[in-house]
Amino acid sequence: MDFVKKHYEKVLLSAVLLGVVGFLVFLPFVISNEQVKLKEIADTVISSPARPLPPLDLTRQAVVSQRVKSPANFDFSTTNRLFNPLEWKKRLDNTIFPIKNGNETGAGAAVVTKITPLYFIITFDSVETNGAAPRYVIGVERQAADKPAMRHKQQHYASLGEKKDFFILSEVNGDPADPSGLVLKLTDNGDMVTVSKDKPFQRVENYAADLKYDLEKPVRNFAGLRSGSRLSFGGEDYIVVAVDADEVILSAQSNQKKTTLPYAP
Questions:
Q1: Neighbouring residues of 112: CB distance < 8 A, sequence distance ≥ 6
Q2: Domain co-membership, 218 together with 201
Q3: 188 shares a domain with 134
Q4: pTM over 0.70
Q5: At 230, is the pLDDT very low, low, confident or very high (cuts 50, 70, 90)?
Q6: Which residue has the higher pLDDT, 41 or 77?
Q7: Alpha-carbon distance 222 to 236, whole Å?
Q8: CB atoms < 10 A from the CB of 245, how many?
């Protein structure tokens, strides 16, 4: 006991050292055992068969894709007036009407009331036999002439073979003093035509139109409009671009916008 009391520190240190040596001897076995366990766990996680994923639910995406293919068309002009309010006008009878397409006033509201064909007419009027050779009085009427003074009938005296502004007297049928007809060659296109006292020659060269605009007081009526005619109504100046058998085309002087007015007799 005396030995222990005198050397208990050494005995205690020896015991501690002996424990440390025992731990160091046993540590490789502990590490090896832990490594085996870790490997088993890793093999269990890594080598386990993968379960298939559940099928994707693409219902919402399909609905969105279908909406993109068929976009919504919003009508803000005929059923919704929040962004496009209608303008309203008053007629002569004080009733109001909406301006939906822009043709309710101005050129689009004008009405073609009549279209008249303009003829080029040649007539065989008479024969003068006072001279050595008969001379034939031939009337020419150009209803489509630019100048009003030239639209009336004008008589021309012509002998056989003589050339005038609009024709050449090529042939006289029957008795020269009282022919049954005259054969004329037109100078503008070279056509051969025959005229007699009871059968003139005529062809359509152009048209004249009558228009009405009844949104003003008094009602505006325009008669005998031809290509190039100028007129004013609805606060705008217009020029007649063309007149055909079934329509009239107007051009606004402010913006050169053309409007076609149909004719429905």
A1: 209, 210, 211, 247, 248, 261, 262, 263, 264
A2: no
A3: yes
A4: no
A5: very high
A6: 41
A7: 15
A8: 9
Mean pLDDT estimate for the chain: 86
What is the C-alpha to C-alpha distance for residues 183 and 180, in angstroms, rounded to an integer?
10
pLDDT digits (tens, 9 = 90+) for 132-175: 789 999 999 999 998 888 999 999 999 999 999 999 999 999 99
Residue entry with tokens 């208990």: 8
What the block records as the tokens of 262 is: 């149909």
- Which residue has 């006072």 as its token pair? 130
How distant is the alpha carbon of residue 195 from its chain centre?
49
11 or 106: which leads in pLDDT: 106
Among 205, 226, 253, the domain boundary falls at 205
Query: Residue 144 CB: number of other CB atoms within 10 A?
Result: 17
Instruction: Tell me how far apart the alpha carbons of residues 153 and 37 are, in angstroms, rounded to a whole number.
Output: 127
How far is CA 199 from each of CA 11, 206, 232, rounded to the nearest angstrom? 161, 21, 41
pLDDT of residue 140: 96
Q: Write phi, then psi, for 5 (nearest 5 degrees).
A: -65, -35
Name the token pair of 192.
Answer: 């051969």
The pLDDT of residue 4: 56
d(C-alpha 195, C-alpha 47), whole Å = 115
Do 258 and 217 share a structural domain? yes
Residue for token pair 């279209």: 115
| Cβ atoms of residues 124 and 132 within 8 Å | no
